[in-house]
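Dear colleagues,

For the upcoming journal club I promised to circulate an example of a predicted protein-ligand complex. I picked one with alpha-D-ribofuranose because it came up in last month's discussion. The inputs are reproduced below in full, followed by the predicted structure.
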Amino acid sequence: MEKTENRPLIVVVGSSNTDMVIKVDHLPRPGETIIGHDFMTNQGGKGANQAVAACRMGGRVAFVARVGDDSFGRQAIDMMRNEGIDTTFVLPTKQAATGIALIPVDSKGENSIIVASGANALLSEDDIEAARTLIAQADIVMMQLETPIPTLVRVARIASEAGARVVLNPAPFPPEPLPEELLKCLTLITPNETEAAMMSGIEVTDDASALQAIRNIQAKGVQNVIVTAGSKGAFTTEGDRLVCIPSERVQAVDTTAAGDTFCGALCVGLSEGLTLGDAIRFANHAAAISVTRMGAWQSIPHREELT
Ligand code: RIB
């Protein structure tokens, strides 16, 4: 990918999954078997979703990932190329199958997700070294936690040393704390309320607890924090002040990839020079559209749909 192109380069490092989705009336309780409705096989994975979102919002995007050397992996690469994403470092492996996510979606649009990581778990520090030149050219590097954490530490180190802004969407949050070295490289982290509580030790229930949670996370070395709180909106800080940017009210059909759409759009907004607050408003708008549609990639809007 040519550095000479004017648009800022966004490099997404992360997961690519095939989502197996079943519509259900309610999410099954432990031990319960339920009969579902429609079944869909969709493109997904938090990394791929964020790359697609950033691309559809008008960003110049490269994706770094591992997929299986199988039909799902080949299909994912073809579809990413069709989107306009640079897939030079979406590397097929014969050692594992493409990642799979099992996703029941209930009548209110809520879901639960189980991921079999497969090839995502093989994204290695050597793979990142191979993509070093690309990562070092980025204006923004965005990551999530569906790939090995030592690999992400390597990404963060290369990106921050090269002067890129480094954004982490800390999902799914691991049982053990995130490494200090990773946190210190981050320009921005985007936990949801649950992830913010796990990182900060503070339950986010109101403005005061949101501010305290953000301060605790910043004390670990992260420069900026956005706590996403679904229909309540997103919390961040401007100087000493807590700012809450409300989300748009919509009828939810499926919340899958709403957070990923938010992150992809946020990075494009920031890459275009928006303030954090305005980038959140832009990202909220994109995420609100995505929850009105089923699926991951197919729910993500294009820039021209944002009025
Ligand atoms: O964030 C939604 C994504 O989480 C799904 O597409 C699924 O693949 C899992 O990675």
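Two points we might discuss: Residues 15, 17, 19, 44-46, 49, 101, 113, 115, 146, 256-257, 259-260, 296 surround alpha-D-ribofuranose (CB under 6 Å). The domain at 9-300 is CATH 3.40.1190.20 (UDP-N-acetylmuramoyl-L-alanine:D-glutamate ligase).

See you all on Thursday,
B. R.
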